[in-house]
Design goal:
heteropentamer, A alpha/beta (667), B mainly alpha (187), C alpha/beta (267), D alpha/beta (281), E alpha/beta (150), B: 187 residues, mainly alpha, Fumarate Reductase Iron-sulfur Protein, Chain B, domain 2, 2 domains, 0% strand, D: 281 residues, alpha/beta, Glutathione S-transferase Yfyf (Class Pi), Chain A, domain 2, Rossmann fold, 4-stranded parallel sheet, 13 helices, 9% strand, globular
Chain lengths: 667, 187, 267, 281, 150
Amino acid sequence: MARIGVFVCHCGENISATVDCGKVAETIGKLKHVALSTEYKYMCSDPGQTLIKEAIKEHNLTGVVVSACSPRMHEPTFRKACAEGGLNPFLCEMANLREHCSWVHEKNELTTEKAIDIVRTQVEKVKLNSALQPIKVPVTKTAMVIGGGIAGIQSALDIANCGHKVIMIERSPSIGGHMSQLSETFPTLDCSQCILTPRMVEVAQHPNITLYTYAEVESVEGFIGNFKVKVRKKAKSLDEKACTGCGLCTTKCPQKKIPNEFEQGMGMRPAIYVPFPQAVPNRPVIDKEHCTYYLKGKCKICEIVCPTKAIRFDQPDEILELEIGAIVVATGFDIKHADFFPEYGYGRYKDIIDGLQFERLASASGPTSGAILRPSDGKVPKNIVFIACAGSRDPAKGIAYCSKICCMYTAKHAMLYKHKVHEGKAHVFYMDIRSGGKNYDEFVRRAIEEDHVNYIRGRVSTIFERDGKLFVKGVDTLLGAMPVEIEADMVVLATAGVANSGAEDLAQKLHVSYDSHKFFAEAHPKLKPVETNTAGIFLAGACQNPKDIPDSVSQASGAAVKVAALFSQSELTREPLVAVVNRTSPPLYSTCVACGMCKPVCPYQAIELEEFKARDGRVVKKAARINEGLCQGCGTCVAVCRSKSIDLLGYSNNQVYAEVVALLNDY
Amino acid sequence: MSHSEHHTERNNLAGGIEKNVGVLTQKCYQCGKCSAGCPVADQMDFPPSMVLRLLQTETPENDDKVLRSHSIWLCIACEMCLSRCPMEIDIPSMMDYLRQSSRTEKKVNKKAKNIIAFHKSFLNSIRYTGRLFELGLIIDYKRQSLNLMQDVSLAPKMISRGKLHFIPNMIKDTGHMARIFKKTSKK
Amino acid sequence: MTNLINRAKELLENGTVKVVIGYEAGPTGLARPAFITDPAKAGKLIYDDRCVQNLAVYLTKAEVKNLGKMAIVSTLPVMRSIMMLISEHQVMGDNIVVLGISTEKELLDIADIGVMKGYIEKCDLRNPEKDRETLAMLNALTPAERFAWWQKEMEKCIKCYACRQACPMCYCIRCTVEVNQPQWIPVQANPHGSTEWHILRAMHLAGRCISCGECGRACPVGIPCHLLTMQLADQVNNYFHVHAGTSDNMTSVLSTYEPNDKESFII
Amino acid sequence: MKTGIYPGCSLTGSARDYNESVFALAEAFGLELNQIPDWNCCGATAAHNLNKELSLALPARILAIAEKNGIDEIIVPCAACYSRLVVTQHELKKNPELKNRINEVIEMDYRGTSKILNVIEWIDKYIIPVVAEKTVKPFNYKVACYYGCLLVRPNKVLNYDRAEDPQTMDVVMTKIGAVPVDYPYKTECCGAGFSVSRTDIVSKLSGKIIEDAEYRGADAIIVACPMCHSNLDMRRPDINKYWATEYKIPVIFVTQAIGLAIGLSPEKVGLKRHFVDVKIS
Amino acid sequence: MSDFEPKVVAFVCNWCTYAGADLTGTSRIKYASNVKIIRFPCTGRIDFMLLLKAFANGADGIIVSGCHPNDCHYTSGNFHAKRRWIMFKELMDFMGIDMNRITFSWVSAAEGARWADVVNSTVTRIRELGPYVSYKELVNKSVEEEVKND
C-alpha cells in the first residue's frame, strides 16, 4: 500500500503570494494513499529537508512529492534528502509550483486549482515510481580542451597540473587566441604578449598536454567520462618533426600579398606562413587557398629551399579518434565586423577601423611597430574619435546585449593614443560607461582626468569623408542633444563581441545548448555557470558571452576544477533513467519480436539484438537489448515500440499515462 | 497576458502613444542618434530624443510641453530617425499622433501656422478634385497663411515651362472622394 | 497455371522446399489457402481471379515456419510483404522461394531477392485504383464530414481484430491492445475504443503498409479500414518518397529521419 | 502580367518632365504602362500629418482600383507616392481589422494583391537587361545619385535596397556609362513637404545636398523623386539666395538620363522644362 | 460558453521547452493558467497515444513542444518526433479529428517569452473553438453504452 508524503513549499512568498498553499496541502491530503500533506516556508532549507527526512521515518512513506520550484533546480537536493531519510531517492518527485505556476499566473482560484492539479499529477506518478539503483560507469581520465586562447590555455594547464592528461585542439595554426593580438591590457596596461607567451610555451612543453593545432572537432559521441571524439587534423603540408622552424620558406614564398588574419588585414603574409613571430608551435603551414602550387600546380619553391626537406604537398588530413572523459569548450568570440553600419562608412573609408585593428596598430609587434598611423596615408592622426556601442545595444542593426568589454578597451585605446600622440585629441562617444571591476572605473577616470580624453555622451549618426577628414556627426545628450560635429583624422569603432564562427555547429556536435546569439549556454545562470546541460562538458571564456581576460581566466580555472573533480573518481554514478526491454521466462523470453525498429532511432547505438539459444545451440528467439552504460534515457525507442516491450525507467508508460489521467481528472 | 499589462492604463501621452501607435517610449535609452541625424533638429525647440525624454517622465507638465512644441510640426517625416534608431522606435508615427493630439487639444504652436495651413490647403485641394491642383493649392495656402507675396516670381517661369495648370485635373468620381473625406473626418 | 503446378511439384520433389503455400479451390468454389507438402498434391494449386488473399501472413506463423523451407505463390503485395518481413527480421530471405505471379497471371522467374527487387521496382506501387478513388472522395470532404463518415464506420466495429490477423505486418506476439499496464486501448467495442484501435493500427502500419487491402477484406462488418493505412502509405510517399516493401533492408520511415524533413504545422 | 502606372499629382503638373521621360522610356523599350483609371491623390505628407485614417484610405482606393482592373504590378515613379502606397499595403496587411474599416470607407474590396514597384525597380526589371544594346550615347558623366528619404525609408517596410548608402541607382547609372561619386548626402532630406510652407528650411537642406555634389565634382545630380527634383531644381534661386552661392549643377531624373543615353532628344525626355539649364546633353 | 475555461495539456521535453517554461517563470512573464505541463525527457519519448488519452480524459487542447531542429539534447529525438507528428497529423486529418486543437512547436530553453506566446495563442484559439465536444461525445457515448450493457 502506497504511503505518499506531500510537502508544499511557500518559497518565502514566491509561491504563496499567488497560490493558496494551505488549500493545496489540504486538498491533496484528502487523496487516497496520501499519508501526509503539509506546507512549509522553505522546503530547501535545512529544517525543510529535516522535515522530509523525519516524515519518511515517522509516516513510513513510500514516496515523496516536494511541491516547490522546478525539478531542474532542486530535484537533486530533495532526492538526496530522501536518501538520507532512508527512502530510495528515485521515489521522490517534484511538482513545479513556482516556475510553472505561481510566477506565471495571477493570484486567483484558478492558479490554486492548477497548483492542485500539478501536485496531484506528481502524486499519481510517484505511486508508480520504483526504487532504482544508480548505474556506475568508468571514467577516462583524459580531458579535451577545445580552443587555445587564454581560457583554453588556463584550463589545460590547470587540469594538466592536477596530473591528468589533456588534449588541446586549436583550429588556427597557433594557440594564443585574441589575447595574442592585443597590445596592452586594461586596467594595468601591461603588455599582452609578455604575460601570454610564457603560458603558450608552457602548454607546448607540458608533459601532460598534447597539442593539436590546425585541428577541428569532427564528431562527438558517448557521454560523461566516456566521450569518443573524432578530430580532423588539417594537413599543414609539412612534416612537423622534420621542420626546424627556420622560416626560410616563408621568406622565399612568391605569394606575399595575402591579408594577414593576425594583423586583422592590416598587414600581408605569404602562403606558407607562421601566423605571428611568437606562435606556438612555431612551424609554418601552407594556406592551400592561396598557394601557387595548389592553385596552379607549379611553384614548390618552399620545397626547394627547405633545408630539412620538410614540405609535404601530398599530405592528407588526418582523423584522430580519441577517448575523452571530459571536455572544456573554450572557443572564444569574434567581433562583429562593422560593415553592417553603412552610415559609419567602415570598409568605404580606410581610416575607419575596428577595435582589434587598433590593437594591432598600437602593438609594438604590429604592422606599424606600435606607431598610431592612419591606414590611408600613414600620417599620425591628430584628432581621433572612438565610438562605443558600435553594434552593441542595438537590436535594430547589431545585437541587443552589452558586449561588456568595449567600455574598458575604448578607454584603453584612448589612453594608448594619448600616450603615443601627446598633442593629439581623443574623443569618445559613449552611451553609459560600464566599468564595474577591480580598478576598472579608476582606469576610466584616469583616461578622462589625466589623459584628458573628451567623453561625449551620445551616439554618432553618420560619418562621411571630405578633404581627407572624417566628419563625425553626433549629439551631446547631456547638453539637450546639442549637435556635435568633429573633423577627425581617424575613427575607431568599438564593435560588438559576438559568438565565434562555427559555434552553432560545434554546439550541435557536442549536444549542448546555445542561446539565440549562438553563445554556449550554461546549465544555470548563477549556480552552474561553467557547466553545460550535457554532463561532462564545461565552458571557459568568451564562448559563453563576451568576457575580459580576468573573467575568462577565472572561469577557465573553474572549469578545470570541475574536470579534476570528475577525474578524482575512477568511476561515476549515473542516474538510472534508462530504457529497458522486458524479459520473461522461456519460451517467450520477451514480448519483443526483434523487428528492429528501435535500433536506428537510438542516437547512442545502445540497442542490439540479443539471441536466445536452445540447449542445442539453435537460435530460438531474438529480442532487443539496451546497453545501460550507453543509454542516455531519451526514450525515443519506447515511443516507437509497437508491442510496448520497451519502457523507460523514471518515465514509464504507466507513469506518464497516470500523469495524463491525473492532470485532467479530479479525484 | 503580457507582463506590461500589469500596469493600469496610463492616462497620459506615453500611454496614448503605446495604445494608438504601438510605440513604447520607455524603449528609448537616450542615445541621441535620432537627434544627431535629424535634418531639422537645429530648428526644433526639443530635438527628437528630448521629445522622447519629456514623454518618458509621464508628467502633465511635460506632456503639455510636447503638445505645444514647435518640434512636432517641424518633423518632415523623412524617417531618418527611425532608420537609425537602435531600438527601432517609430518616431515619425509617434509624431503623427502628437500632431493630431496637439490639434484636438488645441495646443498647436503658433509658429506651426504656415505648416498646418499648407497641409490643410493640400487636403482641401484633393477633397474637391481628387487630385492635387497645384495652383489652387498655392492660392488657398496664401489665403490661409496670408503670405500673399510668396513665390510670385516662381509662377511665370513655371508657366513658361508648362508646369502650372490653370484648370484642375479632376477625377471623375468626385463624390467618392467626398465620401472618403467625410467618413474619415473626426466624429 | 500448369507452370505453377509443375514448378511447385519440382520444388517439393527435389526437396528444395518442404511446403508450398498457395491457393486451392474450397468446397464452395472460393479460393482458400493451401499448404502443399506432398508433391502429388501440387495439382490442387490454382491461380485465378478468386485468389486475392495476401498469403504472406502465414510466413510468420510458427506452425508454418516449423515445416521448414517454403515456397509461396506471390503476387505483388505478397512480394512486398516478404520484403518488409525480411527487413524487419521476421523471415530469412534464403528460407523462401518466391513463386511470383505477374499481373497477367503468368509465373515469373524470381530466382532470388535481387530479381524480386528489380521486378517490384518496375511495378505500379500506388494503392489499387478503386481505393484511390475512395480516398480522393474522402479527402475532398470537410474534416467534419470525414469525422462523421468514419464514426459511422467505427460504430460497426466489434473489435474482433480480424484486420490485425489478416495483416502480414501485424506479427507481434503481443499486440498493444493486449497491454493493460496501462490500458492503452479501451477493451470494449465502442466508438471510443474502436476509433483509438484503428488510429493505433494505422500508425503502427505507417510506412509499413504495402497496400494489399487484406485488412478491409477481412473485416466481417465491412469497415474499409484499409483506407486508413493506404492514406498513410500515400502520405509516406508524399513526404518521404518511399514505398514500403521495395527492398529487403528497409528502415521504417518512423525510425529514421532527414534533418530537412518538410512540414508546415510546427511553429 | 499586367503592368499599371500610378503617376501621382506632381507628374501631371510640376513634374511633367519626369512623366514625359517615364513614358518616353516605356515607348522606347516597348513597355506597357496602363494608367490606373480615375486615380486620386495619395494624400502625401499632409494626410498622415493630420488624419491617419485618411492617409490610409486614399492609397487604398488607388490600390483597390488597380486590383479591380487586373493590374498585377504598379509602377510608382514618385518616391513619396511609392512610400505611401507601400506603407498602406503594409499597415493593412498587418491589421485585418483596420483593413475592414478602410474597405468600408472606400466602399471597395481592397485585398493587397498588387505588387508595387518604384522607378528603379521598374528600370532594373525591364530596362537594364536590354539597355546596353540600346545605348547609343553613353552618359559619360560623373553623377551624384540622390535617393532622398522615401525611396529607401522606412526600409523594413519598403524592403528595398538599404537605408544607408544605397546602391541600386548607382548601379543603374553605371550601366549607361556614368561614374557615380561617393556621396554622403544620398539619403539626407531635401526638405520635402516644406517646399511652400518653410522654404527657408528647404533652401538650407537642399543647399547642403547641392554643395556636396558640386564639391565631389559631379556633373549632375540624379534623382528619382519629383519632390526632390522640385526642391533642388525649381527652388534653386531660393537656395542660391539663402547660401549666397551660384550653384549651377543640373538635377536630372534617372529616367531622363537613360533616355538621353538611348538617343532620345532632350525635349522628348522633358529636359527643357527644368529651371536649372541642363547643358551636359 | 463565455465562462469556458479550456483544459490544455502540454507535453514538453525536459531540456528545451520545460527549461524554456522555467525561464518564463524566472522572467515573471504571465500566461494563461489553463495549460498544465507534463515533462518528458525528449519529444522522441512522447507516444502519440498519449495525445488521444489527453482528449479522452477531457483535454480541449494540446501543446507538444521540444527543442528546435538540431538542438535536441539527444541529437535526434525531435527529428523522429517530427516524422511521427507528420504521420499522426495526416491520419487525424483523414479521420476528421480536429488538429487545430493541437499546437506543435519548438521552444528552446532561451525562449521564455515565446513559451508564453505559444501558450496564450493556443488558449485563445481553443477558447474560440470551444470545448472539444465531438471527442467528449465519443467517449461519453461509449460510457453510456457500457452502462446500458451492464
